[in-house]
Design a protein that fits this description.
The complex is a heterodimer of chains A (823) and B (343). Chain A has 823 residues and is α+β, with helices and mostly antiparallel strands. Helix content of chain A is 26%, strand content 27%. The chains are: A alpha+beta (823), B alpha+beta (343). At the A-B interface, helix 2, helix 8, helix 11, helix 14 and helix 15 of A face helix 5, strand 1, strand 2, strand 3 and strand 4 of B.
Chain lengths: 823, 343
């Protein structure tokens, strides 16, 4: 919202020593967010009013004129290309040193004396676009300069030599206030309310808001029926006749222009002015169109109405409308508090008006405007919960203003007032100790009372308590309890005066978070031991990604209002976005190792409760770890992916094993796929990406992947023994002997381990150290080599004992696995 | 001392000094101390022919000579060996500027992880629990329980992603829902932080993201005040930006706190003078905070008459951008390896 500093100063007599930026700073520290200050005259520095004394043809150019221009205390020579320049004209002269936008385009340029086609020129006679005045002086043709006499303030010649900004009243500072910072302050949506705040902050008095009682009019029998008192607690209206619609006077146009509101006509401008002044939205109807009976009701199902912005709106039964009485069609003529109808508003031919000053319930307005996607200056104010007492004040003010703008206008009805709502204004009884109890610093009770009274609260001290009455403009929502009053005191007292202290607590160590601890370990193992790089991705995926993955789209949750129509689904798996990362990254590298840890969302499984004691459950949202490995030279990346799992589970000190998979997911390579079991339960999966899926994603390399459900693993780890016990060094020396043999390819390492583990009591350890397939071992064969460790806990083994054991083992391998021993 | 011995000593010592190599020293040693024919060995052997008195004096003299020669040899040996090593070492000189090869690949943690961990560790050291919570939340925990009823204008402050077919499910817009979940689970007193991913439905550009990370803090006890809130914010600010960092507090409206404030810290780059990073204000907005609203305590099952507390939120994403001078927020979720490998 834009706030004009000059407008504020009408209500607070600030001395000239106080600057706009000081006031803005105070507002920032105690009240609202002032995002910027725009000095309106700044662009017109060194631009003055000049009178063209003579305009002669340029000796060397047909389209230029050499002008002598009177700047009050001097005459200067300026070369001008304006098609309309002529002697006697009042023009805007940018003197040497002024900054202008050359031909209305590009950056600002500082003017210097120049020679144009051989003739000296000291400054520039400006077109409207060159000094940002196109709103005030619309151009009729391209090469035209401003003819200041179009504005009545320049009719006489007494302005010659004066700074243009001053004559135009552009000596204002506009505060740009962040609307969000005003969401709890309905009272600050107009200049008067903000002035009240400024008065407190600068310790000045606020001018009372002066209005006159509306005289009783006659001739029009205005009646209002409010069918829904909850949505419309108060409705006031008055009729005026003899209105002449026309342009607003310059002062009003300037006021509106200062805060960037477009001037339309005197009546509409008057309603806008009062809204900007008091914060109370008003609406003016053409009486000849809507008649003298107003009905405030809910819309009927399927009812339609075209709003001022020329859009047809489909209304629903929970929307409040203003309707004319049945003789005039009974149709809706405005969406209450949101926007008026196109055909019931003020037109050039309007002579009789009905002015509405009403109070609408905040939630209903917000709901309507959200549903219609229609936000207006009116709806943003009503949805903050306005003080209903503003209605009569605003109505009085606008009647005065309409009569000032068109003296022929007369009040033609009595003032209709429906609804007399009440507000809780206290008093709140607050123990004086309560302030220190909340703030942590004692503020003298005198200071507290003083701050509150200046803010408009009623304050009475009573023993150890104060009784606080809330002013109506703060009572609609913002302030209803003692805590709210504390805030008022502390923000005016000054947060900077509150000393910072640290609270004291018993030194109980905080509860450990198992999941976050596990996440941290897995991150460290992946990045530091395995050299994987951590990636963060969005939680959203596209239809195309799901299809490419071969997954079932119906299992996915979908956003109702996604940012990009492209990715509306909520991920069930970290894989698809990681895959896209990999495809993008592998192009310019040999090898890629990435991982992500994050939540995935399973619509078909139940998670946390929706409310404390509710049976409704949110979807399950486990945290998963997924790592991808691609190497352009590795056509079997399964093993490297398995290494990641080995490293992670070993580093976590967990006992784990690998197991075959029953149910293959569409993105998994069916014969390069394994489950990771921990304590007999599935904790993760290692796989190669199905080549079909890789191709679909545009990946020409093989990819290894592993995934671990960290939420599940956290739960499992609570019940799993971790391998922490220590084993004594063997008392007697152990003997290590190697065996190497050929077996058929389908014989697994796991089978061999299982066989050897129970083969001989002297065999202590079996470790695979080499696998070879290919040249020299036969098509269907592979060579395996193991270190075998023999030992005993009660004696040193003799070499013949080891020989016996070894022969036994070899025999077993030959018989059970068809091994051919290699020497 | 015997004149012959005196001479022998002189000659021997100068021979030691003259030796040029360890081998020459070995030769000299053999010449004097050799078991069979060593000169001194011979003299020692001759002692037995002397009278007991003569034997005593001569024995002592011989011993002194032996010790003196041994020491001289050992010293010379040290010098000769040292210079031999020095010569040998010179031939083994390495290029200390050459990096270890082949290059060993290393992994990288995401910058958000690094900053989040730093904060988690800080708060853990101050006795705070670190909690995690659902990213897909109920409307109740995300809004209603936090004193933001339906059709409240404060809902505008947080453009929300809703889930199709589930009117009351949202992608959480902040980490604050965990305030009430934690109150319900643990009761009072409470000291916790919640780091996590949050979502807002806004168009993405250099400075805006629909996905970002926050860290929520909550302290509830019988005596917790605004002054304590300021103290904790200061402790965090100083941890992040050094002991000279100042905190400035301004009012800001959040429905779930009363009073509500935002906390700014002196810009770490310009120390408050004004620069590009702080948009010439000298201050960086880091925290949203306030005293927990009594309605929120009530929703959490905590009696507001007995307990009070403060809550604060930190934009972790913003801290990451400030810390590493990241201008484009979209880099964080881009999966761009050239970006990620810098951390």
């Amino acid at each position: 919202m834009n706030i004009s500093y000059n407008w504020l100063k009408k209500y607070v007599a600030l001395p000239s020593s106080v600057t706009a930026s000081e006031v803005a700073e105070k507002l920032k520290m105690s009240t609202v967010e002032v995002e910027g200050i725009m000095e309106t005259g700044q662009a017109l520095e060194n631009v003055v009013v000049g009178q063209v004394v003579s305009a002669e043809k340029h000796p060397n150019a047909d389209k230029l004129k050499v002008c002598s221009v009177n700047l009050g205390n001097e005459n200067v020579q300026i070369v001008c290309g304006g098609t309309n320049v002529s002697a006697g004209m009042l023009v805007a002269v940018a003197k040497v040193g002024a900054k202008v936008k050359w031909h209305g385009e590009g950056e600002l340029v500082e003017l210097a004396p120049a020679k144009i086609r051989g003739v000296e020129s000291f400054g520039m006679i400006c077109g409207a676009d060159e000094i940002g005045l196109t709103e005030r002086f619309p151009k009729r043709s391209d090469k035209e300069i401003i003819d200041l006499k179009m504005d009545s303030r320049f009719r006489g010649n007494d302005t010659v030599g004066q700074p243009l900004a001053q004559v135009l009243g552009l000596n204002d500072a506009i505060f740009e206030i962040d609307n969000k910072s005003l969401s709890n302050r309905p009272d600050l949506w107009g200049h008067y309310g903000l002035a009240r705040e400024v008065a407190v902050l600068t310790n000045h008095a606020i001018e009372p808001y002066k209005t006159k009682k509306i005289p009783q009019g006659s001739g029009v029998d205005l009646s209002v029926t409010v069918k829904n008192k909850i949505a419309c607690p108060k409705y006031m209206a008055v009729a005026m006749t003899g209105v002449a619609v026309g342009p607003s006077p310059a002062w009003l146009k300037e006021k509106l222009a200062a805060v960037a509101v477009r001037a339309i006509n005197n009546i509409v401008d008057a309603t806008n002015f009062v809204m900007l002044d008091l914060g109370q939205p008003l609406h003016a109807f053409d009486r000849k169109i809507i008649g003298d009976t107003i009905i405030v009701r809910k819309a009927t199902a399927g009812e339609r109405m075209t709003t001022l912005d020329e859009k047809e709106r489909k209304l629903s039964e929970d929307m409040l409308v203003i309707a004319a009485a049945p003789p005039a069609g009974g149709k809706a003529v405005a969406i209450a508090g949101v926007m008026g109808g196109l055909n019931s508003g003020i037109s050039d031919t309007t002579t009789d008006i009905i002015i509405e000053a009403a109070n609408f319930e905040a939630a209903s307005i917000r709901q309507t405007s959200t549903r219609l996607g229609l936000r207006s200056d009116s709806s943003v104010r009503f949805e903050k919960s306005l003080d209903h007492n503003l209605c009569s004040l605003a109505l009085e003010r606008i009647v005065m203003l309409v009569q000032e703008l068109c003296p022929t206008a007369k009040v033609a009805s009595k003032v209709v007032e429906v609804g007399r709502p009440t507000l809780f204004t206290g008093p709140l009884t607050i123990p004086i100790s309560f302030f220190e109890q909340k703030i942590g610093v004692a503020i003298p009770v005198k200071t507290i009372s003083n701050i509150l009274s200046r803010l408009g609260f009623g304050v009475k001290e009573k023993k150890e308590k104060i009784l606080v009455t809330i002013p109506t403009w703060r009572a609609t929502k913002d302030i209803s309890r003692a805590e709210d009053v504390v805030e008022e005191v502390v923000r005016i007292y000054g947060y900077e005066k509150i000393t910072a202290t640290l609270p004291t607590f018993p030194i109980d160590p905080p509860l450990k978070n198992g999941l976050l601890t596990l996440i941290r370990k897995v991150q460290d193992i992946s990045a530091k031991q395995l050299a994987y790089t951590e990636v963060y991705n969005y939680s959203f995926v596209s239809v195309a990604q799901i299809i490419k993955l071969g997954d079932d789209i119906h299992k996915y949750l979908e956003l109702d209002n996604p940012i990009s129509k492209e990715k509306p689904y909520i991920r069930r798996n970290l894989l698809p976005n990681l895959l896209e990362n990999a495809v993008a990254a592998i192009a310019n590298r040999e090898e890629l190792k990435i991982f992500e840890i994050g939540s995935v969302f399973a619509a078909d499984k139940s998670g946390p409760r929706v409310e404390h004691n509710s049976d409704e459950l949110l979807p399950r949202q486990d945290t998963w770890f997924t790592a991808l490995y691609v190497n352009k030279k590795d056509a079997s990346p399964f093993r490297e992916a398995r290494r990641a799992v080995e490293m992670i589970f070993n580093s976590l000190n967990l006992t784990w094993e690998i197991a075959p998979v029953d149910k293959v997911q569409p993105w998994e390579h069916p014969t390069r796929l394994a489950l990771v079991l921990c304590g007999g339960k599935v904790a993760g999966v290692v796989f190669e990406l199905h080549p079909r899926v890789a191709t679909a994603f545009g990946l020409s390399e093989r990819m290894g992947a592993c995934s671990i459900n960290l939420s599940l693993l956290t739960e499992m780890m609570a019940g799993l023994p971790s391998r922490t016990s220590h084993q004594n060094r063997p008392l007697y020396p152990e003997v290590i002997r190697d065996v190497a043999f050929l077996v058929k390819k389908e014989v697994t390492h796991g089978e061999i381990i299982a066989l050897l583990q129970k083969s001989d009591p002297l065999l202590k350890e079996v470790e695979l150290f080499d696998v070879f397939e290919g040249k020299g071992v036969g098509e269907d064969k592979k060579s395996l080599a193991y270190h075998l460790t023999y030992g005993s806990s009660d004696r040193t083994l003799t070499s013949s004992e080891v020989d016996t054991a070894e022969n036994h083992i070899i025999k077993l391998l030959q018989e059970k696995c068809g091994a051919e021993m290699r020497k | 001392m015997d004149k012959d011995l005196e001479n022998l000593k002189k000659q021997a010592l100068s021979a030691v000094q003259a030796a040029r190599s360890v081998a020459q020293l070995d030769e000299l040693e053999n010449k004097w101390f050799g078991r069979a024919h060593g000169e001194l060995t011979q003299l020692m052997k001759g002692l037995k022919d002397l009278s007991p008195e003569e034997r005593k004096t001569a024995g002592e003299e011989l011993n002194h000579l032996k010790v003196a020669l041994s020491e001289a040899v050992a010293e010379k040996r040290g010098v000769l060996e040292g210079s031999a090593w020095a010569v040998a070492a010179e031939t083994e000189r390495v290029d200390i500027t050459q990096p270890a090869l082949p290059k060993k690949s290393v992994g990288h943690l995401h910058p958000n992880t690094l900053v989040q961990r730093d904060l988690e560790d800080l708060f853990t050291s101050m006795g705070f629990m670190v909690l995690d919570g659902p990213e897909l939340e109920s409307d109740y925990y995300n809004f209603t329980a936090l004193n933001i009823p339906e059709n409240h204008p404060a809902r505008d402050m947080q453009d929300t992603f809703y889930v199709k077919g589930h009117k009351n499910w949202v992608m959480r817009t902040h980490t604050s829902p965990m305030q009430v979940r934690a109150m319900q689970k643990f009761g009072a007193p409470l000291r916790l932080v919640v780091p996590g991913k949050c979502f807002r439905n806004e168009a993405t550009d250099v400075r805006h993201e629909h996905t970002f990370y926050q860290l929520e803090g909550l302290v509830v006890d019988t005596h917790i005040t605004l002054s304590h809130l300021k103290g904790v914010l200061e402790a965090v600010a100083r941890h992040l930006y050094g002991p000279a960092t100042k905190v400035r507090v301004r009012p800001k409206f959040y429905p779930f706190v009363e009073p509500g404030i935002n906390g700014e810290v002196t810009c770490f780059l310009c120390s408050g003078k004004g620069c590009r990073v702080c948009k010439c204000s000298g201050w960086l907005e880091i925290f949203g905070a306030g005293l927990v609203h009594p309605h929120v305590l009530k929703e959490g099952g905590i009696d507001p008459a007995q307990y009070q507390g403060f809550a604060f939120g930190l934009g972790v994403t913003r801290l990451v951008m400030l810390k590493y001078g990241i201008d484009d927020i979209r880099l964080l979720e881009s999966g761009d390896m050239s970006f990620l490998e810098q951390f």
